[in-house]
# Entry
Amino acid sequence: MATNSFFVNLDQIFILLRNWLVGFLPAVLRPAAGVVLGVIAIVCVFPGLFALTTVFERKGLGRIQNRIGPNRVGPYGLLQPIADGIKSLTKEDIVPLSANAAVHFLAPMVLVVTVFMGFAVLPMGRNMVLVDMDAGLLFFFAMGAATELSVFMAGWSSRNKYSLLGAMRAVAQMISYEVVLLLSSVSVVMITGSLSLPKIVAAQSQYTNGFPHWYIFTPWGLAGFIMYAIAATAETNRSPFDLPEGESELVAGYHTEYSGFKFALFFLGEYLAMFSISGLGTTLFLGGWSAPFSFLTWVPSWFWFFGKVMLSIFVFIWMRGTLPRLRQDQLMNFAWKFVLPFTLLNLLVTALWRFMGEGWARWVVCTVILVAAYVVMGRLEMRSEHFGRRSYRYAE
Amino acid sequence: MLGDGILKGMAETARNFFGSYVSKERLTTVEYPEQRIPTAENARVFPFLVYDGSDWQAGMRCVACQICEKECPPKCIYIEKSADKKPDYVGKQQFYPARFDIDVSVCMSCQICVEVCPFEAIKMDTQFELATTDRFGGLLFDRKELSRSNEYYHSIHPTEAAEVDARLAEEKAKVEAKAKAAAEAAAAKAAAAADAAPPAASPAKSEGGN
Amino acid sequence: MSLTFYLLAALTLAGGLAAVLLKHLVHCALAVTVAFAGLALLFLQLDAQFAGFAQILVYIGAVAILIVFAILLTRGSDLPKDGVFSKTWYLGLVIAAGVFAVLGWAVLASVRAIPQQDVVPTVTVHDIGIALVGRYVLPLEIVALLLTAATIGAVIVAMHEKERAK
# Structure
């Protein structure tokens, strides 16, 4: 059908564009040129989305707080990122005299480079993954781990108490929630049987009676997604876990001593990390580029992927406008005493799901176990603390 | 249950977000300077001199008594009395200010000058967009710049102005009644004197004629 | 022995040398991180994807941060007065050369012992997983026990201080 092939072409439009552009080159250069074009596309699209997200965040937070966001630059303030970009490019780049110049210079670069590398394995549409690796998920988490190092470098090299404290807190928080992130992804890997992200999406893009097989619609998938979302919010230092960079707490935490373009790079790195973690979350739990209903598969796959990512970003912004900040010991307690045990239980429930076979029995059993565990652990967590006499570890 | 507080909070913020597009109470921003909140009636910024009628010099209520100059805490008023006099609203001859300068950059809007003025001559204005780039004389207002008509006073402080007008009219009526009574008394006295003098003169004349 | 291998080997060696020769301890820790990254890239160049990414995840993401934290929380930021090199550095060089010779001989001997294969076997994550729970399940469980013991020990060490201070 003519319309069918039109939608197929629309779905694959970026691949076709790339093949056409690469066709101008001799055959020996084509693979490399294809990869380079993909890289250029990622480097252009995601910072563009970042610019749009900054304006949406400010306007969204404004509306939540009963005020209008920025609306002077451009229609409805949509050109505000351009003004912000010009501002950060023309600001003076101040480096403290006692700061470690080399490490201070390298930290934002390491952050941005590792975060961009994380985008290489995300399947953004049908056949639209930059590198189809066998261990793609592991690569993504490896890049996330390297991000923590840059945070530490930034905080330590500034020779500033507040920066160092902020960096230590940020690294402690990121390490704790990294464990949770990995464990909640492992349950997806268990069910799919592969670490490769395009295979995970392909396993979720089947439909029964029009409903998709997304993992979020299973009990263990919903629990895993909630734990993943909490861990993702903590990994990217977003509210309510933004103590390391909260302005009212630690000046600006580990990026206090950065001004001008380097600060813009940190900002870019944080938002890009948010995009890539949301991208991974949609790939693992929300079905990646697959449509929500089988009659909607004519809509291009990249539209669904970016739509779901933007929806996750919207939820991030919504949570930022709603929740107060968690204190450092509160968030560490939460990670190790509630989220991690629940994630381990989720792993057990996933295994149970796998081995119970098809049928309604496994739905009931898994749901009951997860809900009971959540209620019990929630009650345990919500017990009021008894504060005894304060003890000072190093003063005595 | 753990987490229901978060969900309730998120519902509230969602209500705020979507409500800000439909209802005014969930979007309280006033986009200055395109939109302005109307000032309250008893707002006060800097003083001005009231004049009755259309001629600002002839109708100025100020009689240069200099009470406001003495009472002003930061001493921002400078008055020079005139040499001659002019009639005021009841017709009495009064001095008037040859110079009346207020340095508005010093004025602290305390309204003491208004409270102590016995002649309802100085009142508080509500204009605040007076920023100027001339920092030496730009905010030093002389008596011409300070004079505003009574109609203007009515437009910014209606109830106060009505009350002031009522009081002034009452004073004027009292003075006029007094003047009328005095005139009547004088006329009666003159008539009595005139009555007394000719009858006194005529008996003298009739006595002389007999 | 391609160009990529030489570049990566140079990177790893540079990182290792910098880790030993630099004055500031945190710089040394970051140089060691560069050496770890070089190693991970070498694994990737040999098509051992799992090993390479696990190297990045574990070494750069956890061990390097552990080293840096250890430097910061102890007094390691001060520079030693006499300089970082000991007086008998040539003896250390001789011992290091000896160790390198033994290791090199062992590696070359084992390479000669393995029969030549025409096709390099591709080891997927699936194969590693099957091997871990099949042939190597005992080492896996022992490592798990070791990690549990280490975690409990860390908790006891941290908690013990609080108990003592009360």
About this structure: Residues 49-380 of chain A form one domain. The longest strand of chain A covers residues 207-208. The CA atoms of residues 50 and 237 of chain A lie 16 Å apart. Strands of chain A lie at 207-208, 211-212.
